[in-house]
Design goal:
4% strand, 3-stranded antiparallel β-sheet, 53% helix, disordered N terminus, mainly alpha
Amino acid sequence: MTPPAEHPYDADRVLRDFTGYLRLERAMSPNTIEAYGRDASYLLNWCASRSLLPTAAEAADIEAFMADMHDLGLTGRSQARLFAGIRQLFRFLRLEGYMDTYPMELIQAPKRGEHLPDVLTVEEIDRLIEAIDMSKAEGTRNRAIIETLYGSGLRVSELISMPLERVFLDEQYMIVEGKGSKQRLVPLSPVAAEWIESWLADRERLPIKADSANTLFLNRRGSGLTRQMIFHIIKVCAELAGLRKNVSPHTLRHSFATHLLEGGANLRAIQEMLGHESLATTELYVHLDRTRLRAELLAHHPHFS
């Protein structure tokens, strides 16, 4: 149903009034209010992407939302927290007269499970990048690696196996082979493309091994990098940046998705970029997809502005 005339729906006002309700009437802690407010914004953005009024949402819509968030990697503990946040949102909407029903009533809360990696703020991402020692020979390579992980949301396995022939710097996109040998097209930020181009100049001076001739990122001996080496690079930078969070390659992937989602990016586009859907290989589809997915990043990713 649509909200009563005395309470016309406005997303910004709803979110503001909701956090005020949590603070004044529910007396929740600042951390809980911040978390529940973020959860509510996820749902409001999801509904907006489907031209659905949250005040008209039904149980099936909430289940679809939770399924989409699960596909983004929100499992266990984080999914349970998300459920609690949107449950409070719908209680507020009903209490304030925005809706007559309570769609959460018949939905079972997800079970708590494994804790997800921390999410870095944009400021923390910048500190991580600034901590790269550019005086070292591998500085340019490490900058290109971190910009690519955060700017494109790659898995570490996808990064270390990335072939040169699937990186298109002029067009600023990559063709990534993910789980199940499924290929997807992922845009590159202008910053990442610039640093990869600089790294390729350094790469030409390495004694490249025959079996690594088509691998994008190499160590100083001309061989492909290992997962452990990528973890080490990021851990060292995190320590130098003074970050107290547990930072790993997956932290950058999770931050990529979270920052896009918080910025209002289309959830389906994020899923495609993360590799949750297969990518058609026709030339026309690739062209159309590159334009659409890149538009999502230009509009919503901090390093694309």
